[in-house]
Amino acid sequence: MPEKEVEFKASVGDDGKVVLKRKSKIRKGKKSKASGGQFELRVRKDLEEKGWIVDKWSNNVESEKLIPAKRKFNPFNKVMTIGTGFPDFVCFEKRGDLFEVIGVEVKMNGTLSRIEKEKCVWYLEVGIFSEILVARKVQRVKGGKIGIEYVDFLDIEKRMRKGN
């Protein structure tokens, strides 16, 4: 009788408990992370071609304060990930004597979570960014060239449900 391949992989979570993960989901996650990283590089190149000075944003918002983003360490690859801030990029463009500063968040499907939307609102209220764009992947024709569409966060905010 042939041996059956193990369907799950056991690992230990942050809380010390054993977590079982489906191997198919692990493969899917690796693929998603890789394609997301490639799309992020494509967006950066596109913004630079349009004349923006682009850099990774390494800050985040917690309790309505701007803090340095937490770094993530992968013990298997011995790699420290630095750029885990929100939004992904800060972009500068010289306009006369002044600079316009915008934030750009890269999302393959263009959908922000509720927490990300709240962070965007805070960035705009405080005046850290004059505008926040969400870059999303668009494909006009199936199998055709992949394009980038930039959606202004203010358009997204108009569709948001207002809280209590």
In short:
This protein is α+β, with helices and mostly antiparallel strands and 164 residues long. The chain has helices spanning 23-49, 114-126, 153-159; strands spanning 8-12, 18-22, 53-56, 59-62, 65-68, 72-74, 79-81, 89-95, 98-106, 131-139, 146-152. A 5-stranded mixed sheet has the order 3-8-9-10-11.
Number of strands: 11
Helix content: 25-40%
| Mean pLDDT reading | 84
The first-level CATH class is given as Alpha Beta
**Whole-Å distance between the termini?**
61 Å
Question: Could you give a short account of the major beta sheet?
Answer: 5 strands, mixed
| Order of helical and strand elements | EEHEEEEEEEHEEH
Low-pLDDT regions: none
Strand content: 35-45%
- Cα shape: globular
Tell me which CATH architecture applies here: 3-Layer(aba) Sandwich
User: Compute the gyration radius: what is it?
Assistant: 19 Å
Number of helices: 3
Strand-pairing-aware structural class: alpha+beta
**Can you tell me the CATH topology?**
Trna Endonuclease, Chain: A, domain 1
Strand arrangement across the biggest beta sheet: 3-8-9-10-11
Please indicate the count of domains: 1
Task: Explain this structure.
The chain has 164 residues and is of the alpha+beta class. It has one domain: Trna Endonuclease, Chain: A, domain 1 (3-Layer(aba) Sandwich), CATH 3.40.1350.10. Helices cover 29% and strands 37% of the residues. It contains three helices and eleven strands, in the order E-E-H-E-E-E-E-E-E-E-H-E-E-H. The strands form four sheets. It has a five-stranded mixed beta sheet. The longest helix is centred in the first third of the chain and has 27 residues. The N and C termini lie far apart (61 Å).
